[in-house]
TrEMBL record:
Species this protein is from: Alkalibacter rhizosphaerae
Family: Belongs to the peptidase S26 family.
Keywords: Hydrolase, Membrane, Protease, Transmembrane, Transmembrane helix
Domain of life of the organism encoding this protein: Bacteria
Domain Peptidase S26 stretches: 15-168
Chain ranges passing through the membrane: 21-42
GO biological process terms on file: signal peptide processing
GO MF terms held by the record: serine-type endopeptidase activity; signal peptidase activity
Entry protein name: Signal peptidase I
Active site positions, chain numbering: S46, K87
PANTHER family linked to this entry: CHLOROPLAST PROCESSING PEPTIDASE, SIGNAL PEPTIDASE I
Amino acid sequence: MDNEGVKLKKQKSEWREWLESAVIAIVLALFIKLFIFEFVLVEGSSMNPTLNDGDRLVVAKVQYYFQEPDVNEIIILHYSQGVEFVKRVVGVGGDTVEIKDSVLYVNGSAVEETYTDGSTYADYPASTVPEGMYFVLGDNRDNSRDSRFADVGFIKKDDIVGKVFLRIYPFDRLGRIE
C-alpha cells in the first residue's frame, strides 16, 4: 500500500509541476508582449518601399521607456481605438517641419529622403512640433495618413507603441530595419 501512496503522490507532484510551468510560461509571454516586444503585420502601402503590405515586423517596446524616439526611426503608434499605424519620425519637439515642392524641410534644411518613392503629396506649411510631440510621415507620401492630416496631427509619446527594428517575413527581406 505504501508504494501506491508514493505513486499517487508522485503523479500529483508531476501534474502540479506541469501546471506551474504552464502558468509561468503564460505569465512570462504576456509580460514580454506587454512590455518588451511584439510582432506586427503591415497592412497597407503607406510605408512602401521600405515596408510592404504583408511584412511581419518585430517592435521593441522597452526602448522608449529609457530614451526618446529619434528622427528617421520607424515606429508603431496608436491612431485610434484598436488601430495602429507604422510611420517614420521626421520631426521632434522644437523642430519646424515643412513640405514645399515635394521636398521635406526640417528647421529650414532640405532632408535627403532616399527611402521615399516619388512625390510627397501636397505642400505642407511650416509648423513647429510642440515639445514632447513628434511629426511622423509614411514613406509612400501619396498614400499615407500621417501628421500632415488634422485627424493624426502631432504624436504624443504615450501614443507610441515602440520602435520597429526587425523584419522577419518575407524571408527574402529578413533583416534589421534602419
